[in-house]
Amino acid sequence: MILLVKIAATHVRNRLRQTVVSTLGVALGVGFSIAMAGLMEGSQRDFTTSLIDAIPHVEIRDEKRNPTVQPASRQFDAVAFHGLRPLEDLRGIRNPTEAIASLREWVPGQIAQRLTGQSVLRYSGQDMGMTVVGVVPERELVVSKIREDMRAGSFADLTSTSNGLVIGDTAADRLGADIGDTVTMTSGTGQAKRFKIVGLFHTGVSSSDEGLAYAPLKAVQILFEKPNIINRITIRLNDINSSNTIAARAERQLGYKAVSWEEANEGLMEAFAVRNVIMYTVVGAILLVAGFGIFNIISTIVHEKARDIAILKSLGFPEGDIQQIFVLEGLVIGVLGAAAGCMLGYGLSSYLATIRFEFSAGREMTHLPIYFSTLHYAIASGLALFSSSIAGYFPARRAARLNPVDIIRGAT
């Protein structure tokens, strides 16, 4: 085997210029493949992380997944309903204390309750539609990243201020309001209540910064006339991959609809899966093109070394050894190219990670999200070696089938 390697190395070294060109082709393919894979997966992970931080891992809502079966439907096979009027009933999760206590017995994570509703916020003669979220501040801080989004004031002030309100800085700018100002919030039932702004937040999501507000749970229950009622239970899990399992169990236990973050963003997850397929297809195509360069140089060596092949076969080298020699030549180029490509890929990824962008008049700063993973290097190197071996196999098979007698006689 050592002799075969030495022969292969000699062939490759004798055509140094072509070998260098083919090696550079593989290196460029591997390097750019690694950089592209790191950029695409980095952007996917960055977006997913931002998404997961912005929404609950599991959210239990005050609704049923399937419509309620009418009593008449249980008694008759064919029933048509006309002018059906539901019983007057306030929507919401009843007995929230008992429901949350039952979840805390087995849910591996943090749990918080909310009461969410639509209202109109009025200040200095201006009205703005607002989604107000009633929270228990100390519980909300452990299930969301609102603390990191605060730009002025403190979210914890909602604990000490019974009529406190935290709104987005964009909404405050539009209203001309600031911390310490008192605004009026009016619910859909006409109930009005005055709140004092104690904090401003900025998430970077315009819909939240313009139309979302937080207030103490008790104050919001008074505003919507829903005492001791909530309509959301939010869960932040220790392991986000268990969200579907936790949501299904919580739904069976409480009877209310439980939505995991994966279910809420199912279309987005499918788009990511399709994008990953496209990414690896492009990577494979790049390395396939590099393989043609290897195929070309091995074919040239086979043509030039025809008499050497005849001599080797005359000395008793079997066809398998002859074939191994030229496959090894392809692998030598592939290994060299893969090694150089890994270094090139790491350098490109490191450089791209330093590129920064500034948005929103200097308020937002971001950079290219690059994800460094040994899997990318392994996949790119593996594909390079695979294409190199395939590129070397076909010329090697042709070399192994050459008849030494025909070669020595000068037959074509």
UniProtKB/TrEMBL annotation:
<keyword id="KW-1133">Transmembrane helix</keyword>
<feature type="transmembrane region" description="Helical">
    <location>
        <begin position="277"/>
        <end position="304"/>
    </location>
</feature>
<dbReference type="Pfam" id="PF12704">
    <property type="entry name" value="MacB_PCD"/>
</dbReference>
<keyword id="KW-0472">Membrane</keyword>
<feature type="domain" description="MacB-like periplasmic core">
    <location>
        <begin position="19"/>
        <end position="252"/>
    </location>
</feature>
<feature type="transmembrane region" description="Helical">
    <location>
        <begin position="325"/>
        <end position="348"/>
    </location>
</feature>
<keyword id="KW-1003">Cell membrane</keyword>
<dbReference type="Pfam" id="PF02687">
    <property type="entry name" value="FtsX"/>
</dbReference>
<dbReference type="InterPro" id="IPR003838">
    <property type="entry name" value="ABC3_permease_C"/>
</dbReference>
<comment type="similarity">
    <text>Belongs to the ABC-4 integral membrane protein family. LolC/E subfamily.</text>
</comment>
<dbReference type="InterPro" id="IPR025857">
    <property type="entry name" value="MacB_PCD"/>
</dbReference>
<dbReference type="InterPro" id="IPR051447">
    <property type="entry name" value="Lipoprotein-release_system"/>
</dbReference>
<feature type="transmembrane region" description="Helical">
    <location>
        <begin position="20"/>
        <end position="40"/>
    </location>
</feature>
<protein>
    <submittedName>
        <fullName>ABC transporter permease</fullName>
    </submittedName>
</protein>
<feature type="transmembrane region" description="Helical">
    <location>
        <begin position="368"/>
        <end position="394"/>
    </location>
</feature>
<feature type="domain" description="ABC3 transporter permease C-terminal">
    <location>
        <begin position="282"/>
        <end position="404"/>
    </location>
</feature>
<keyword id="KW-0812">Transmembrane</keyword>
